[in-house]
Please model this.
Amino acid sequence: MFAIQLRTSFPHHASKLRGPPTGPSQRRGARVVDFRFLVTHQLADRVTEKYRDKLQRKARQEGLASLDELKAVYRARILEEQKPGARNPSSESHLTAPLPRQPAPPTPAGSPSSSETAQSAPPGLKTLSSYLDLDKTAVLPPKEIEYIWRLRHASSPTSLCAVLPSRTFARIHRAARKYPQFILPLPREGSAGAEIHFMQWSFPAPDTVTVVFTHLAEYKLRGEFSQPHTIVTMHSELMQEKGLVLMQGQVVEGRGINVEEARWLVLCLQKFYGGDGKDDSRRRRLLEMFNQGDGTFKLEELVEEAEKVV
Model:
């Protein structure tokens, strides 16, 4: 289970759902239908079709299985570049000379080295080796690794951080492969409704899993051009030897979501994708219905299950 503390409570009268206002013509009590059949992306479709061959070739070059994964990877890179204080390597390369490298200590047998991990990842993707020295981390006990990981992200007010047991991550990973898209409700204090958010998984590298969260209203309006408000990455390089998976995420400022609300969404994600309790079958059924476009999928049932997260 994620080691995340939440201060947000889910109102028990949250069966009435709402999204961010879309204009003065918005009607209350409108019939809820599957949003995916209402999304129109004429411009996005024209661009994708025009450059489909080039995009598919680029996806293959970076070791990705589909255009969706390619889009998710580059969306993550754009968010990374937009972070305050982000450096532009191309503008600094002529100012600093590379430092001499010290020989790395021998890697224990069976442990992934930093270079091996970096070679298997698409260019620009931040794997675990971007945050930790894997060769040195491999010799530490799990408790110390967890402490270092949390300390590494403690100074950022917009970051998310957690450590997952390997069994929990394995359940999440299996479900994410099978159900790559879903929607989650977010309660709003002082309101009788819940705001709906769209989430999408991608698998850009063997040991890296990414999920992005976007306001459903924005995704319906802009489709592939929508800007996610939260991106979360799970790193499984240490899963086999240490029995843990390290998670980190970033909340984009100015997108209408704070860190506590993002934590709520991540906790809901765990319950729907990684749960193993008595409510697991109902939640998995909702995942299956949504991804199959089942017309009987009801948002009211989704909210009811989300209420049980607390």
The chain has 13 helices and seven strands. Residues 1-43, 87-118 have pLDDT under 50 and may be disordered. The radius of gyration is 20 Å.
